[in-house]
Write a structure and sequence with these properties.
Pfam families: DUF1835, DUF3658. This protein is α/β, with parallel strands linked by helices and 281 residues long. It contains nine helices and twelve strands. Helix content is 38%, strand content 17%. Strands 2-1-3-4-7 form a five-stranded mixed β-sheet, sandwiched between helices. Strands 10-12-11 form a three-stranded antiparallel β-sheet. Strands 5-6 form a two-stranded antiparallel sheet.
């Protein structure tokens, strides 16, 4: 068995679940890119791949993850995945998805590359399904890593083969999104992904900017309250873009990290307050 997940926290969660159930034993393959944001034009060709990589390099500059672009190689991950499927003809691949644009877009990106293995690819999509949290209450997780390891043992019963019609229709849906080549994609429900304007998350950032704030605090606060989340790197890039457009002002030394950068509305006071929340980012 081969497990496929789309975020590092999901790898950790699944590893803990495997410790509880030997029937889940198998290699975990992580697709690291976040295909819910960024350019998708000619994504399967060298030019499109390089354009996307260059876009991420721009966003990751001065971030805590600056070296990430050099270790993300999803093309190699898929190459090794296909090699395992060829060398182990009895093996199945299980794709684990939470109800979020990151996972669903990554699923769409992966699908066309697995078409020759129809019948051996299972999907577990935790779409609007209830689980029990650590406090014993029912909740509806949007990400796999929100689920307790023991609850994964229930989730495995949801595995089903990806149908032939899905292998035919889902790549067409993804091709449409690639042709639109928007920089933000939003999950409306089920597997319905729609393209959004690049400023889709700006209102969440602006709504939580109070006076002059440390960049790290603003990101921490916004992500904690946003109903639909995206990555912190993308949000910082949007703040830079809004500053370039004159909607915000930035001050500080980027080379020293996000905690040294202050964000404010034009004309706002310079005073900032350090809070415990900032130190957690």
């Amino acid at each position: 068995m081969i497990h496929i997940v789309f975020e590092q926290p999901n790898v950790t969660a699944l590893e803990k679940a495997i410790e509880l159930d030997e029937s889940l034993q198998g290699q975990i393959v992580e697709i690291k890119d976040d295909f819910a944001v960024g350019p998708l034009g000619d994504i399967y060709h060298t030019e499109g791949y390089q354009a996307r990589r260059s876009w991420w390099e721009t966003l990751l500059e001065h971030s805590p993850y600056a070296d990430t672009v050099n270790i993300v190689d999803d093309k190699l991950a898929v190459h090794n995945l296909l090699k395992m499927l060829d060398e182990q003809p009895e093996a199945e691949a299980w794709i684990w998805m939470g109800q979020n644009a990151h996972d669903v877009c990554s699923y769409y990106w992966l699908m066309p590359q697995l078409k020759d293995y129809q019948g051996r690819i299972q999907v577990l999509y935790l779409n609007n399904l209830p689980f029990i949290n650590e406090k014993g209450s029912i909740f509806y997780p949007t990400h796999l890593h929100e689920i307790q390891p023991k609850e994964f043992l229930k989730a495995k019963k949801l595995a089903r083969p990806i149908t032939l019609s899905e292998f035919e229709l889902d790549p067409d849906e993804w091709k449409k999104l690639c042709n639109e080549n928007a920089l933000v994609r939003f999950l409306e429900g089920g597997k319905k992904i729609v393209s959004k304007d690049v400023d889709f998350y700006d209102k969440d950032l602006l709504a939580h900017l109070n006076g002059a704030m440390k960049l790290s605090k603003l990101i921490y606060t916004a992500l904690g309250k946003m109903k639909v989340k995206t990555g912190d790197v993308f949000l910082v890039w949007r703040i830079k873009e809004m500053a370039a457009a004159g909607k915000l002002e930035l001050a500080g030394d980027w080379s020293k990290g996000w905690k040294e950068v202050v964000v404010k509305f034009p004309g706002a006071a310079e005073t900032t307050e350090t809070t415990e929340a900032e130190t957690t980012v």
